[in-house]
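Handout, section B. The chain below has 406 residues.
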Amino acid sequence: MPVMTPAEAREFLTGFDHGSHPLALEYLNVALDRLLVTLDMMPKLDPSARVLELGSTPYFMTSLILRHFPCQLEVANEPDRLKQDGGKVTLRQRKLGIEHNFEYKAFNIETERFPYEDGRFDVVLYCEMIEHLMHDPSHSLYEIHRILKPGGYLLLSTPNPFRYTNYLRFLKSQNIYPPFSGYGSYSRHNREFSAAELRLLLKQCNYEMETLFTAYDPAYDHPKRLDGAARWLFNHGLLKEQMDVIHLRARAVGKPLYRYPPELYLDVHAYQRIVNDSIEMGVNDEAQLGTGFYKLENWPPQVRWTEKQAKAVLLAQGHATFGIRLYTGPRELARQVTGTISLNGEKHPFDLEPGQWTELRLPLAAPRDGPVHFQLDVAQPWTGHDVLGLSDTRPLGVAVQRMWLE
């Protein structure tokens, strides 16, 4: 059974001081069904549970959570011109005698570290936000994972770019991209995500999906002649991922990871997030690799070939030694594989046999804290075409499986 009916929710929400404003009523007319679906997805909580609602200062969802879930609720939103760090707001429903005082935080969720300690929250609501981001949604997912308790819940909703009404617009030669906004770049939808893309991104960022579905939302523009047929198809198991809004609930597992899958990101080397003292290809590699690494290959193990020169950065915290596990190339090279590894500018030459997996351990200049800049230079790159008769003409150095500090 739903937590509330739309009529009950509307009566409750419009009783708040902010809920009777014309702009608020306009938003409620669009968002009500989506809010109630999200409310139904909330896990059971006890009064000590901490919940963070992103994109709120507070707003309608805040009131619904407070009515139905005994929890410690905090809210956060993007900075504005008047209150760059946040502010204080009172939620007041005079008819029911409800009054809640909030002190909200303000920060940019795709560029800043969230102002909360690790493992603070049981639930984070991330609704109707990811489609507004322009640069780095993986950062927001990393930070949400970091501030969630192990096994804590992420609730996310976002418009579905593969909703069936977009197909109809496309067939009519109508643009499916959202219009520009006079309120700035974050006020429009910059990138909508499909269900498959969200599954991929959350899995790589160390979330375990519990449920993901698309939902019909009456606030969307549906052609009357086809609407009944589309809903019939959806109710009979068809159009499962072609409805208006994607809703999901996932749990944070393991440790937070920065992942930048090539299906979603270009110029991955520009997304440097230096948080780890190790890099393992296919596990946590993209955010700390620089230029000079080719696409991931799964032999296994998962490796990346380097070009003649390759760069990366690791984070030292009192470490004294750098380690690297690499494959020197096929025996058919019939020559030594030589070059240098530079660690913060200090050069270490190497001279290795071809056809071998090798682990090198090199001293850092001193036990230190901070970034360790790695650069690999191979004296003589080779190609699969010249050495093995393959079609691969990439200049190759060595294949790297992992790097670490100890």
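Note. The chain has a mean pLDDT of 94. Compare this with the example in section A.
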